[in-house]
Amino acid sequence: MEKLLIIGCGSIGRRHLTNFRNAGVRFIAGSDPQPSRLEQAHKQSGLDAQYADYEKALSEHRFDAVVIATPPSMHTEMALQAAESGCHIFVEKPLAHNLERLDKLSAICADKRLCVFVAYCHRFLPSVKKLKELIESARIGRPYAVTMNWGSFLPNWHPWEDYRAFYMARKALGGGALLDESHGIDLLRYLFGEIEWVSGDVGTIGDLEIDSDDWASFLLRTRSGVRGKGHFDLMRHDPQVKLEIIGQKGSLTWDRIDHRISVYDAERRSYELLPYTTSDVLMMYPAEVEHFISCVRDGTKPLVDLEDGIRTLEVVMEIFESSRTGRARTLVNRG
User: Fold this and answer.
1) Would 78 be classed as within a structural domain?
2) What is the pLDDT of residue 263?
3) Considering only CA atoms, which of 185, 164, 186 is closest in space to residue 175?
């Protein structure tokens, strides 16, 4: 990969800039309507060109790939323009804030043979890879059920700015607990297969002075028969990112905050603790960048491709719809 455009030079855009630069990409342009963000990005890792308007950048250069690190409400239009320009696409999660025009994006990318990677970076955690290995090796037998808790206090996310001005606080920009923390839904699909049924309750129940949802709770059933319940919030002062899995022969707990996996063996009636360090979490960002570069170079399928991003977004949309109507939702079988 020779030339890259990063659209959106906020905190995550600057993180990707550093990782792509470290991975050897020689020409990186940045686009952001806020000059201060472009200045920060340039000071941090250097920009070879700067633009307030990403469309101007696309018209002046032939980029190999584009990174989209803007509010979710902007993703689809930017991805469509990048695809029309023949660029491979690295798009931050969630893929979009609704499902509109994603079929068009899929068709263009298929026709032009473009790689699309959706940045559900938790799949790149060594601890998640270990958890998947434990499940698939039947360490606890057949998995019966899973409980997911994923929450943290929104004002702590970006302490350098007023969180109420952050896109996460604004529903129209695609902010909110369910969309942004859909990492958890992606992991449930990755570990247990497609989700076929959901029932949800989503709302704004705290006093954060935001209009996006700060609470989402749901029940689910996977195609393979695993039952589950999940919870996201933006109000929890003591962060929690955890999966608890009940199986035929024991249980598994993955705890990203306490940095450990615990395995309970029912026959031995004992726990095995598999700790890991904070560096495990930090590894996921450079790992996804290296993966994307290799997919572009070799033409291989991304670990989280466009179809994956669409399927996770479909689950999110059905949870929203279930909450709106008060009825459970069955997802369309996509094969």
Assistant:
1) yes
2) 98
3) 164
Pairing relation of β-strands 195-203 and 215-222? antiparallel
Q: Is the peptide bond before 94 cis (omega within 30 degrees of 0)?
A: yes
- The tokens describing 269, both together, are 């009636």
Would you say 302 and 115 are in contact if contact means Cβ atoms under 8 Å apart?
A: yes
- Helix or strand run (H / E) with residue 314: helix 306-325
Which segments of the chain have a pLDDT < 50? none
The angle subtended at Cα 252 by Cα 251 and Cα 256, nearest 5°, is 155
- 287 domain-assigned: no
Side chain identity at 159, as an amino acid letter?
Answer: P
Token match 């129940």: residue?
205
Q: Is 294 inside a domain boundary?
A: no
User: Could you give phi then psi for residue 27, rounded to 5 degrees?
Assistant: -120, 115
Q: State which residues form the domain around 109.
A: 3-114
Per-residue pLDDT, 333:
66
Residues 202, 328 contacting (CB under 8 angstroms): no
CA distance to 7, 84, 189, 235, 279, per residue, from 88 (Å) = 13, 10, 24, 36, 29
Count CB neighbours of 59 within 10 A: 11
